[in-house]
Amino acid sequence: MSTIKFGLFGAGGFGREVIPYVKASVCKTLGAHEAEVEVFFVETWMPDRQEVNGYPLISIDEFLGLEGARYFNVAIGDGRAREQIDRQVGTRAEMLSLRAEQSIFMDRNVIGEGAIFCPNTMVTSNATIGRSFHANIYSYVAHDCVIGDYVTFAPGVRCNGRVEIGDHAYIGTNAIIKEGRPDKPLRIGAGAVIGMGAVVTKDVPDGVTVIGNPARLMDRKS
Questions:
Q1: Cα torsion at 42, 46, 51, 57 (round to 10°)?
Q2: CATH 3.40.50.20: does it fit domain 4-96?
């Protein structure tokens, strides 16, 4: 009989990409056997269906009422939505990171709770990463980077060394972030959005959107 209940919030496209490796990751992290782990999709409202891709779909109230040890993660790309769900769950379940078997981690990294590392992602060495980080397929974090809480990397992000990224930043598909200097890391501000395919060569302020190569402020009138 299962004793570990794992809820993956978000049954959309990203959640459906993540859930196939949830059980293996949970078992490896907790040292559990597959028979001990039961996996659910969870929504913050009452679902209008009972399953998605063969996994039970339940409400947050149902999940938090399950007996046994409860763990969760949030497969939603919006970092602020992840933080809201994190706060809503509170201490009633423990946030647990998920790592696909094909993800690679090198030396001396510090990674916060609740990260999701999709297949073919990498963190090299001496990186510090905050809570609920998302690294979608083929993304990497290089040496000496410092990444805040609830940061999202879309597919194919190349974050080179000595980069600092503030909380809730969103880095779009195939964006490239230039390596910073030892005496001056390249900084991307809190809540900033880096557009798809952008090449970031200089600091990005808080809360702005940049696009293009080299990346520049998006003209809101266009």
A1: 20
A2: yes
pLDDT in tens, 153-210: 999 999 999 999 999 999 999 999 999 999 999 999 999 999 999 999 999 999 999 9
Token output for 48: 């209008």
Q: What is the pTM of this model?
A: 0.95
| Dist CA 98 CA 82 (whole Å) | 15
List pLDDT tens digits, range 39-51.
999 999 999 899 9
Residues identified as active-site? 143
Residues 113 and 132: beta-carbon distance below 8 Å: yes
> 43: which strand partners?
59
d(CA 77, CA 134): 8
Determine the Cα–Cα distance for residues 151 and 11; give it in Å rounded to an integer: 20
Distance between CA atoms of 216 and 190, rounded to whole angstroms? 17
Predicted confidence (pLDDT) per residue in 78-99, tens digit: 999 999 999 999 999 999 999 9
Residue 210 CB-half CA count within 13 A: 24
Question: Right CATH number for 97-214 from 3.60.150.10, 2.30.29.170, 2.160.10.10, 2.40.110.10?
Answer: 2.160.10.10
What is the Cα–Cα distance from 155 to 201, expressed in whole angstroms? 20
User: 40 Cβ partners below 8 Å, 6+ apart?
Assistant: 5, 6, 7, 8, 55, 56, 57, 58, 63
